[in-house]
Amino acid sequence: MVHRARMGHPGGDLSAADILAVLYFHVLRIDPARPDDAGRDRFVLSKGHASASLYATLALRGFFSEDLLTTYMRPLSSLNGHPDRNKVPGVEANTGPLGHGLPIAVGLALGARLTQGTWRTFVLTGDGELQEGSNWEAAMAAGQFGLDGLTLIVDRNRLQQGDTTENTVTLDPLADRLRSFGWAVVEVDGHDVGTLVATFEALPAAAGRPTAIVAQTIKGRGVSFIENRVEWHHRVPTDGEMALALGELRDPS
Amino acid sequence: MTTGADCRVAFADTLIELAANDPRIVAVVNDSVGSSNLRGFRTRFPDRLVNVGIAEQNLVGVSAGLAGAGLMPFTCGASCFLTGRALEQVKADLAYSRHNVKLCGMSSGMAYGELGPTHHSIEDLAWTRAIAGMTVIVPADPIETVQAVRAAAAMAGPVFLRISRMGVPAVHDDAYRFAIGRAAQLRRGDDVTLIATGVLVHRVLEAADALSRDGIEATVLNMATIRPLDREAVVAAARRGPIVTAEEHTVVGGLGSAVAEVVVETHPVRMRMLGVPGVFAPTGSSHFLLEHFGLTASGIATAARDLLRDGR
Prior knowledge:
Chain A has nine helices and five strands, in the order H-H-E-H-H-E-H-E-H-H-E-H-E-H. Chain A is of the alpha/beta class. In chain A, helix 5 (about 135-145) links the parallel strand 2 and strand 3 (about 150-155). In chain B, about 40% of the residues lie in helices and about 20% in strands. Chain B is built from twelve helices and twelve strands. In chain B, strand 11, helix 10 and strand 12 (about 270-275) form a beta-alpha-beta unit. In chain B, helix 1 runs parallel beside helix 7 (about 140-155), helix 8 (about 200-215) packs across helix 12 (about 295-310) and helix 9 crosses helix 10.
């Protein structure tokens, strides 16, 4: 999709792909035939720039035709570079500016409590994104409200647009920081599907507290020349690189 | 000095009345229960008041989430912080997302006069009306506030309600019917049209009285909805003659600009735009500052006379 559009964020798409796959194919109580069902689980992709991964996941899960993916970022496509809930079935929030998803997710989780709703709320943020202060406003509120229906997954790939997170503005000790805000924190390998499944099945990690899953990931996961390379935050693969990447993804060795 | 009713009272009473019949309504605040006059709401509906603390970005984001849960948040805070601090959330989370959230900007304009420009909210109309999908309403008195709150609740989608804390006299009677996007003509005259919004409406009416004593007859329009603007009313005014606008807001981007945008595209006439002239206000009470910037009956009347004299 990024190759065809000549635009996108392949590094962050790939670091989040396993998490999205586990959520959409194992965890979320959703029905692609009824994307607006009032009782559905809510998933907010706060790192909206990973839209290609989200759209591909939604299409594979049956929210819309896979054919639509070829229109990614084309003129007048419903598939913007960042997702639009009013255009794409299954999208819960119009994200793109960073630091917006967690506050929205706190509202969705609080809304479940206020309306006796049974849904659970999940939000996936990047890690560099946590430099936005709005996340910490929301983290404080979620702790205060004891929102155990809320799960934050941090795609901890340790890279942001320009450098590593730790060379930019350090996030560690991230788990301790979140704990001090009233969260139950679990640290997992964000590419270990079995561990992810087990972690999600054990939610909430502590009664009366929101859960944060710090998922240790590799930016560009699955493609050797993209993995852990900061320049691939929003680089577009050449035709040759595309062929190599698809080969590696089809036949990991 | 003009005395009168604080529109926050009408706002809160109406919200309680609506909430009694509409379980979707929740109040969301940034530690502003008192300044938003919501103690009564909290007493009546303790489980339906959400206080996120002093955190406006989260305030608006949480409100979007609550709307995503099927609720209808009335999100209240001092207008300067609610709009300025959280403007990107207002744009992305509410307007672009089309969430059914009613932003209630309290103590707007220069109501916090002495506290200084940090606490003045004289850019909020420019900011909010620039955003696609926003409805922007500025009630002029308690009667209009009641109806504006009801109208906001009755429509789906994001609304910015700009509420003052300055006492204002009633400019409407009980027969008044507010409609979103429709200007109210409060007086009819053929020489000049005075268009005002919010706390300036009663001052413009007084200015029209003063002009009438000099033989100048003014039409007075209360432009309570800034977006969508009542273009027909503006065009009709332009066809009659010159226009004076008055607002408790910077002249950059507010009511005057909105009116001028229509005038220059349809029927260009001379205008005078009264407001805060692109400066930060000096120290002083709200009443002092309105006088300082000529936003009084005599100041407005003088501007209208000058416009008529210069324009002829």
